[in-house]
Design goal:
279 residues, alpha+beta, seven-stranded antiparallel beta sheet, six-stranded antiparallel beta sheet, transferase activity, GATase_2_dom
Length: 279
């Protein structure tokens, strides 16, 4: 499907992760060993919160239908800015057309959202799912992807007040709608959501065989494990990254997120919580 990363911590030049890591997101766009598709060349997106914003931060977006490995603007932009929280996503189109409005991350006010996975048989379910979106939010759907509809369902079900419950209720509705239409495993994927302060990362599928998701170990821990790793000096003590697959081969640097789990990342670090739609 796709590959994505989300960073939170001290302000960082995004190119350090997006471009320069051993298995950077751009490298994964050409070769993602753990992905459903090896190549993710159907466009990309980059969303970031400006450094220094402390109240109601509004994120910026850059989308392109170019392959990430072939876009000089991505290199220029990720080298020019610093951000304490940013998302980046490379796309492998599973059906919806290659166009900028279908590139992740998606934005609503201060919220960013991105997804790796799919709603099974979305064409059959699209009408019922889309019509369940709050009419006030419906005009904000600009593209044709299942991911954007899922985001707007989560907003409809209260994401801005309680992100975990909003995503849970949206996925429950997708599953109920799918099962009513005879789709056995409607939901698949990993999801990242942020308000610019906290990051929520979900790993869940109806079948219980979800796309991979990892998060980095704490930087102070990694410095003790690898005292000669000069690259770790680029990161502050609060630097954390959540990724579809690890950005390097250092044992213990990235930890797999369990199935049916939401990772909450705030100023105190990672918190894992069980994530299952209520029956």
């Amino acid at each position: 499907m796709c590959r994505w990363l989300a960073y939170s911590g001290e302000p960082l030049q995004p190119s350090i992760l997006v471009l320069d890591a051993q298995h950077s997101l751009v490298a994964q766009s050409l070769d993602s060993p753990l992905g459903a598709e090896t190549v993710n060349g159907d466009g990309f997106g980059f969303g970031w919160y400006p450094s220094g914003t402390t109240r109601d931060p509004l994120p910026h977006l850059f989308h392109s239908i170019e392959p990430a490995w072939n876009d000089e603007n991505l290199r220029e932009l990720t080298m020019a800015v610093e951000s304490p929280l940013f998302f980046s996503h490379v796309r492998a189109a599973g059906g919806p057309p290659i166009q900028q409005t279908n590139c992740h991350p998606f934005r609503h006010n201060r919220w960013l959202f991105m997804h790796n996975g799919s709603i099974a048989e979305f064409g059959r379910l699209k009408r019922d799912l889309t019509f369940a979106v709050d009419p006030a939010l419906y005009p904000s759907i600009r593209g044709t992807t299942d991911s954007e509809v899922l985001f707007h369902l989560a907003l409809t079900f209260g994401l801005q007040d309680d992100p975990v419950d909003g995503v849970r209720r949206a996925i429950r509705f997708v599953e109920e709608t799918g099962h009513a239409a005879g789709v056995p495993f409607p939901m698949q994927g990993t999801v990242a959501v942020s308000d610019g302060v906290t990051l929520w990362a979900f790993r869940y599928s109806t079948q219980g065989r979800t796309r991979t998701l990892f998060h980095s170990a704490d930087i102070p821990t990694l410095r003790k494990m690898y005292p000669e790793a000069d690259r770790l000096s680029l990161f502050g003590d609060r630097a954390h990254v959540v990724v579809s697959e690890p950005l390097n081969d250092l044992p213990g640097a990235f930890l797999e997120v369990p199935e049916s789990t939401v990772v909450v990342l705030d100023d105190t670090g990672y918190h894992h919580e069980p994530f299952l739609p209520h029956e």
